[in-house]
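Hey, can you fold this one?
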Amino acid sequence: MDNNNFYEIVKNISKYLDEPFADSSLIPTILLCRESKKYVDVVLTGDGSDEYFFGYNRYKFFNKINKITFNTNIYIRKLLKFILIKMSFNLIKIFFKLLPFQLTKRDYENFYKFIEVLDANSEKELFLKIISDNNFFKFNNKINFAEYKLDTIRDISKFDQNIYLSENGMTKIDRASMYFSLETRSPFLSKNITLFANNLSPEQHTNNFKDLKVIPKILFQKLIGKYFLQKHKTGFSIPPDLFFNKNIRDIILLKCENFILKNGDMVNKKLFNKYVKLYINNETFNVNLWKIYIYQCWLEREKS
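Sure. Predicted structure:
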């Protein structure tokens, strides 16, 4: 993916959507479907493998942060969060420069996510803080989280299977593939495979949380060799630096400003200004700005 491809899709993102859909991994999915259609009419997808075989990084993150968080006094955690929030980004960068490895913009995003979860009072609240920013938007989520038990990794996996897979993964591949008249099939969602996967424990799926998606890795290693499975899991996402291209940043910030002019009461203005400042200063791009951008693009298309 280069800047031109990325810019062209970002600029025209609403034409691929019949409703707002703010997962930025839609962009590489669009590119993949577009290129695939040049050669084939039907493709196999990996949808369901992360949800049923424990492939998301958040499973390991939840397991680690759960132990750290709830073994530390809540008042100490709140104090630490207060201190970290008050720290300037430049001071945070100086601290991280002392580490024996270089951090990316995505690492900084994860650091801010870590700050957000520090004061969680329960496992369920911890998970909800990991997957969303409940303090940013001021309207009710259509998903009633009170209906779901989210205290263990197994609970989270079930939630992902029932909600995240259909509302995100399957929606994304459907919108992108159908735009190019490309048919998709998802073998990981066959009945026998899902039943098999759900009969195994999270520990079996992750080698006691030392790895992710262990069973598919073992199988595919036999099929295609170990070399292709050595890369660190990053998710099907966009290189963060692409969002800091001047043309991209300008159109995203313009749409966000247009949104705020008429819908400012729908978001936390203080957080919005903070995220915009971080973005303008080339520090980090918060996903909530992308959500606003997508919604505003779709809104303008519907009104035209």
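Residues 42-213 form one domain. Let me know if you want another pass with a different chain boundary.
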